[in-house]
Design brief:
It contains 8 helices and no strands. The protein is mainly alpha-helical and 197 residues long.
């Protein structure tokens, strides 16, 4: 359901964004598409938005902002070609879906410092992956602008999903926690598939 809604929204947005910026050939479109090109990226970023609504208050913007900020740091390191283990990054990205799903399943009740540490670490892993996978012909600043804008949109969709469930009162909050468990299961499946495949 969450993935279906997000896919529809991005299908409508992608042509307009690419046309409006006129940067398709210079890397903007490639950067914009990158976060939605992989299910692990997409689910983790949706989870960040959903989680922020569970914590509430200023965290609704500061949790996604932390992810985006550290993602840029990771992206820069990737752009510069500084070596970080591919296995470490791949596992970090898949683990992000597992642990963010777990935190959502707890209702966001874990220690906030721990949550922010998770979000920052996962932001770095996702950003590094964006950076090292930038097409050779792309301009770094346009590619970065693309994946940052795309990530922010995904976070916002996650926030809206979180608000929608919270509007259903306690029943909605309980359903959201079940969704967290589903996300955790999907992340575990990705990890298992990666190792068994």
């Amino acid at each position: 359901m969450l993935l279906g809604i997000t896919t529809i929204i991005f299908t409508l947005l992608l042509p307009e964004v690419a046309f409006a910026h006129g940067m398709t050939g210079s890397g903007f479109f490639a950067g914009f598409y990158h976060p939605i090109g992989g299910l692990d990226h997409l689910l983790a970023m949706l989870s960040v938005g959903i989680l922020s609504t569970q914590i509430g208050g200023k965290h609704i913007w500061s949790v996604p902002a932390t992810f985006v900020t550290i993602m840029l740091v990771g992206g820069y390191i990737g752009f510069m070609g500084l070596s970080v283990s591919d296995t470490f990054i791949e596992h970090g990205i898949m683990l992000s879906v597992v642990l963010l799903g777990l935190v959502i399943a707890t209702g966001g009740q874990l220690n906030k410092l721990l949550i922010y540490s998770f979000v920052a670490f996962f932001g770095f892993c996702h950003g590094y992956a964006h950076g090292v996978e930038m097409p050779a012909q792309a301009k770094a600043e346009y590619f970065a602008a693309g994946f940052v804008i795309s990530t922010i949109i995904i976070h916002l969709i996650g926030v809206l999903i979180g608000f929608a469930y919270h509007a259903l009162s306690q029943h909605g909050k309980t359903l959201l926690r079940y969704k967290g468990a589903v996300l955790m299961g999907m992340g575990l499946q990705m990890l298992l598939s990666h190792h068994l495949g």
